[in-house]
Amino acid sequence: MLDSPLLKNCRGYINGQWLDADSDKTLTVYNPVDGAALAQVPAMGPAETTRAIEAARSALKTPAPLGKRREWLRGIVKALEANREELGRILCMEHGKPWKEAQGEVDYAAGFFRYCADNLEALEPRALKEKPRNCSWTVYYRPAGVVALVTPWNFPIGMIAKKLSAAIAADCPCVIKPSSKTPLTMVALFALLDEALDLPPGKVNLVTGSAGPIGDTLCDHPDVRVLSFTGSTEVGRELIERTALLVKKLTLELGGNAPYIVFEDADLDAAADNLIGNKFRGGGQTCVCANRIIVHESVAEDFAQRVKARASKLKVGNGMEPDTDIGPLIDRNGYEKVRRHLTDALDKGAELVMGDVPPSLENDWGGFFPPTIVLGVTAQMACWKEETFGPLVPIATFSDETQAIEMGNQTEFGLASYLFTADDARAQRAIASLEFAHVGHNTGTGPAPEAPFGGMKQSGYGREGGLEGLFEFIEPQTVPRGG
Ligand code: NAP
């Protein structure tokens, strides 16, 4: 079992109290490295979720001024900074990503709380300089109400930081449901919120347990005004349907299928270096990692060899060992999906540049999948159409700019994309044509707390980060005053 001062209460948190499930049932959290049980968390359901929503609704009666919210946001930054190693250790143990990378995720999370604290004045009431209808007009930025925040397993603290920072900034009480695969980092975060901040009861609530009953309650309860969800497009679609009747506001951060386009004039070493950082972060299990590498035919073989030279140096293993670069995949389903994408590509004619087909996994947990590169990928292959979520680098080729853009856009997703070229005019043409909300130009970097991030097309709607994210849980209220 995982022993940590931040996990003294491995329980849910409702109305300022640590609680077990009414049924006393629990879920086990496993280490993807070896399947060891790390901890049990309560298997809560509709009754506990309803109580959490009611507690949050009561907390709406004690609004906090901007100054207090800023103090809370800064308090969280301080607590995260002071506990980055321990939070990183818990995150590494339940997710598998290397400890050093997990600590980087804690820093990333702190950045969202810091950004909101530094920019809260954007939520001050705004007086219009115009005076339409002979009135003076003021816009107030009111909290939208109780918000539900549902997060995936692949960034156990990064994803909640985006949502919770904006909820606290907007003064929206929240009910949080973490992924059942990685709830321990969230429990640890709540331990810090409980110890370090004087949040009123009900302001932040945590329910752990199976998605179905908790998710349905969050969708069906009329007091939840906004549902902010990060996860698969498949579940996102279900949430749209389920919340339509109550006309809830949704923020949906869904799946991606990022193209990584390398033109013939690009700095190939820089493109390869960036690809390593982008593709293998989290073992390739990120929504923004390059999923389709689209390289000009004249440099594709050369580029593949440069990526291979770099990827060969990556060490796959237990994330708690200091020299590990890539940890295990999250579970058997994740591992078998990458394996299926690889075998499908090879069956349909792709050439293996690095790696081999690893054996099927016998256990349910984890699985170490080595970095693998294939060349000659086509649109008929599964790795082109679906998010692989693993350390497979599938390279396709193009012959001209128009084809490169068409290939990049050949997906129902529109989250992240990347292009590498030395020609700025070509880059500007390509950026304007790429139907993605994030386009890295000569960089493989993903989102940052200071910039809005979200999806186009079936990658969702709404934004997190930046000023746009700060307004996600706000209802503007307009007051014309006559006389
Ligand atoms: P998922 O299966 O959709 O689950 C995400 C969260 O939703 C989990 O907490 C899950 O709980 C919960 N959930 C599942 N079914 C639900 C339902 N019917 N109602 C309410 N909640 C429900 O996704 P995942 O496998 O955890 O995450 C990987 C996906 O997230 C990938 O597609 C990735 O691209 C996407 N993602 C997107 C972004 C972005 O910014 N756009 C960022 C990160 C990840 P349980 O764990 O208990 O099932």
Give a description of the structure.
Helices cover 37% and strands 22% of the residues. It is of the alpha/beta class and 483 residues long. It has two domains: 5-254 and 459-481, Aldehyde Dehydrogenase, Chain A, domain 1, CATH 3.40.605; 258-448, Aldehyde Dehydrogenase, Chain A, domain 2, CATH 3.40.309. A hairpin with a 6-residue loop joins strand 3 (26-30) and strand 4. The structure holds NADP nicotinamide-adenine-dinucleotide phosphate. The site of NADP nicotinamide-adenine-dinucleotide phosphate (NAP) has 31 residues, from helix 7 and helix 8.
Main features:
alpha/beta; binds NADP nicotinamide-adenine-dinucleotide phosphate; single chain; globular; 483 residues; 7-stranded mixed β-sheet; Aldehyde Dehydrogenase, Chain A, domain 1; 6-stranded mixed β-sheet
Number of strands: 24
Shape: globular
Ligand set:
NADP nicotinamide-adenine-dinucleotide phosphate
CATH superfamily of the largest domain: Aldehyde Dehydrogenase, Chain A, domain 1
Continuous helix count: 15
Question: What structural category do the secondary elements indicate?
Answer: alpha/beta
Instruction: Tell me about the largest β-sheet.
Output: 7 strands, mixed
Helix content: 25-40%
Tally of structural domains: 2
Neighbour order of strands in the largest sheet: 14-15-16-13-12-18-19
Mean pLDDT score: 98
